[in-house]
């Protein structure tokens, strides 16, 4: 049920923010991929991931950096810390993530 909610593009942003902190990583993953995830939720997840990883880069932070709702400030903060390892630009990656979320 929670995975379906996390994947649904009509799930309210407040629900997505809660799902992003679910105990199951699959639910978190789909919540982050959801194009309706608000920037505040992305920022919280990026901070949580950084705290847990000790600053090492992880795929979740790359996804957050390229999320269509990531602000330029968040994107710059994350790419400045070495998060982005994608050779394509953020807009192209954001499009790819939206497609992945809809599959």
UniProtKB/TrEMBL annotation:
It comes from the Bacteria. Pfam families: LRV. This is Uncharacterized protein. It comes from Actinomadura algeriensis.
């Amino acid at each position: 049920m929670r995975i379906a909610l996390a994947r649904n593009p009509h799930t309210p942003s407040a629900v997505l923010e809660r799902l992003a902190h679910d105990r199951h990583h699959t639910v978190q993953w789909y919540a982050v991929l959801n194009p309706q995830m608000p920037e505040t939720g992305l920022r919280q997840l990026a901070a949580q991931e950084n705290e847990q990883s000790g600053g090492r880069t992880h795929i979740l932070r790359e996804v957050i950096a390229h999320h269509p709702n990531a602000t330029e400030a968040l994107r710059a903060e994350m790419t400045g810390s070495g998060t982005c390892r994608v050779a394509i630009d953020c807009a192209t990656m954001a499009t790819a993530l939206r497609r992945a979320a809809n599959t």
